[in-house]
Amino acid sequence: MRPPQMVKKPGPRRSHIRMTKNISMACALSEAAKLARELVALPSINPMGRDLPSAVALEHRVTAYLERFFQDLGVPYERQTVAPGRDNIVAHCDISPGRPTFMFEAHQDTVPVDGMTIDPFAARIENGRLYGRGACDVKGGMAAMLAAFARIVREKPPGAVNLVMACTVDEEHTFLGVQELVRCGIKADAAIVAEPTKLNIVHAHKGVARWKLATTGRACHSSSPELGINAIYRMGKILTAIERYADELRASRTDPLLGPPSISVGRIEGGSSVNTVPDFCRIEIDRRIIPGERPEDAPRQLIEYLRSVGIDEPLDVFPLWLSAPALSPIGSEELVQRVGAAIDAVRGSHRVHPVPYGTDASTIALAGIPAVVFGPGDIAQAHTRDEWLPLDELDAACDILYRLVIS
Asked: How far apart, in whole angstroms, are the C-alpha atoms of residue 254 and residue 250?
């Protein structure tokens, strides 16, 4: 009698293994990680003056998601319409009468996805990282704030500060969202602004003013250029003078943390065809502002310099299309200490430092609310072709923000 044959049972299909793995991973994700993943999957590209498909442009999908989130929490909230399809949303958690109010602020928009080598909205998680547009800048930071905000709402820890959660639009282009937030009279005793800082504290940064300047001329056929006035030649004289002005500006003053102010010309356009003497030329100017300066003064200061060195060409000066003040560390010293103590309780140490880029924090601080910048992720990963965020920093950021609120 032959022994019974051993029958080999078929193993699970690979697709089933992958599905089981994905389900397990989803179950293991923290609330902050789940929120970040869902936010990244929602396109909210800032058009920055370009025509983009409606399926990916503007922040309204994220705003609707946030509205449902706050409705589910049962907290009061309001929308602030900034432009069509672009609303700030501001929620409140008032649990401690007489205690201070802190504001968490994060922007809903992202930069465009041109040149990305990954699916920008797949929100893929791999090797402890969340990949996708906005994962680092700044939907991860927003998710950490939302998760901490939700925990405070649910637990109502005694002695916690009151909270405002403000989610603004248009940070990546012209700062219209935070300007509307301030114009509407937002009230808080301190503010934490989400940006990727590797869980350190940013307490100072430069401001910026951007505007266009144009020269005019008289067009004619290029075979007889003496019959026209070349607007590009006129602009050439101005560009040479601005180059000298940039050197003098850098030498004129400096900030101990942020260094000197600066000016540069980043774009130029002019003329209609090579066989026509151009009757217009436009440049676009970037002026970096240090504490003590006002962005709105920058165009006038440049014109005064040009006139002082003998440039009398007729000029058209366009209104500022971007204006944001510098963030000074003065006034945020106590907040820096409180945030630092919360970071140390979770991470053991932290740095306090300035950065060269701008944020919503400076506009909030100018409104009289001490503000610092804090969040998970590295600015070096922001706006990149494979943007990603480490999930361990995301969860640590949530814990830090919770400790800050209950301290």
From this structure: 7
Measured between alpha carbons, how far is 145 from 166 in angstroms, rounded to an integer? 10
What integer pLDDT is reported at residue 180 of this predicted model? Answer: 98
Q: Is the N-terminal amide bond of 138 cis, ω within 30° of 0? A: yes
Amino acid at 323: S
Select from 265, 299, 324 the last residue of a domain.
Answer: 324
In a domain, 2, yes or no: no
191/220 same-domain check: no
Which CATH number goes with the domain that contains 388?
3.40.630.10
- Average pLDDT over the chain, rounded to an integer: 94
CA 335, 340, 345, 347 dihedral sign is positive
Nearest Cα neighbor of 141 from 116, 166, 174 is: 166
Question: Residues 100, 97, 64, 116: what is their CA dihedral angle, to the nearest 10 degrees?
Answer: 20
Residue corresponding to tokens 């929100």: 123
Which of 75 and 14 is assigned the larger pLDDT? 75
As a residue count, the chain comes to 407
Q: How far is CA 26 from CA 20, 23, 31, 330, 392, in A?
A: 10, 5, 10, 43, 15
Identify the CA nearest to 192 among candidates 33, 7, 396, 336. Answer: 336
Specify the pLDDT at position 132: 98
Pairing of strands 86-93, 101-107: unpaired
